[in-house]
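## retry 2 of 3
previous attempt timed out at serialization; input unchanged, resubmitting
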Amino acid sequence: MINLTDSAINAVRNAITTSDKPVDGLRIMVEAGGCAGLRYNMGLVSGSEPEDTVIEREGVRVLVDHKSLEYLEGTTIDFVIALEGSGFTFENPNAKSSCGCGKSFA
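## retry succeeded, writing output
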């Protein structure tokens, strides 16, 4: 299961309501790349794929493909506002190491 904090849910909901295109949910993926070998990728999408796992919380749909789910199981996603900038953070119990930016892991 992937967990989203209330702050993350509110940020996604705000992005969905201000989008000028129809949005079905937020896709979260893990891709090769980044400083540590794997990186998180997120984006609003207009539809799901047949093999997606769909997580719904308070009306916000999160779509995760089968491969990414293996890396994201148990992850908590938060949205933080800080002096350095705002953005999503990932607390991933499956990550053995991560880079300084927090967007890449191994």
